[in-house]
Amino acid sequence: MRHREIYSRSSYQWLLKGILVTIHAPEKVASAVELDAVTKVYGAGEGAVRALAGVSISVPRGAFIAVMGPSGSGKSTFLHCAAGLDRPTSGRVRLGDTELSGLRETALTKFRRDRVGFVFQAYNLLSWLTVEQNITLPLRMAGRPVDQDVLRQVASAVQLDVRLGQRPSQLSGGQQQRVALARALVTRPEAVFLDEPTGALDTRTARHVLQMLRQAVDHTGQTMVMVTHDPVAASFADSVVFLADGQLAGRMTRPSPALIAERMTSLGEW
Questions:
Q1: Which one, 21, 47, 121, 177, has the greatest CB density within 10 A?
Q2: pLDDT score, position 11
């Protein structure tokens, strides 16, 4: 009897003497975020500033990476380009299966609202809204119904389930940052981008927020890209990407605060 080969997307099968044998092929890990030769230049002529110079990087789904570098290294520009908040001068940015450079401004705004989470250092909460209303604001702006089960899961994950009726002024800084994190997670985004999320927090509160980020990655497969200056914060990530003068300057896996600090010292003053 001839061997009959049957191909499927994730496996190869052979019918051998009446027995179906399946050999699973290794599947390529999909990227949540991908930058390809991204350059960003502000201004023109002699006053032009090159913030990014041909940066290429791929962030797998379910990964937690920290981005570090000296002042002026391009960290914030990297984050803004990766999240679709700023358009690169050249190169391509892809989130999931969507290439952002091909989107017009209106479509890009809708894409960010529906599929990107962003956590700012300044929280950016609306003082006249309750915690629940702040968390669900992206959904209501998009005209999407609020799934109460998802809301409860997200609020519980950041330990705010008993504070949904309170206003931001009734919360501590750490609690306000958790509201911002829940707001970024409630839309189930392709990736969450965080700009110095613990920069304004005390050490204990910062550690608590970082533990919640780590749990979101480990338990739900969420993708996180975090800019930080703090080696302790960066050590919660799976890997650290270093930038210098707008270019990639190395990557470290399984980072420790001491190793991160040593690497940062070698990059110059920070």
A1: 177
A2: 41
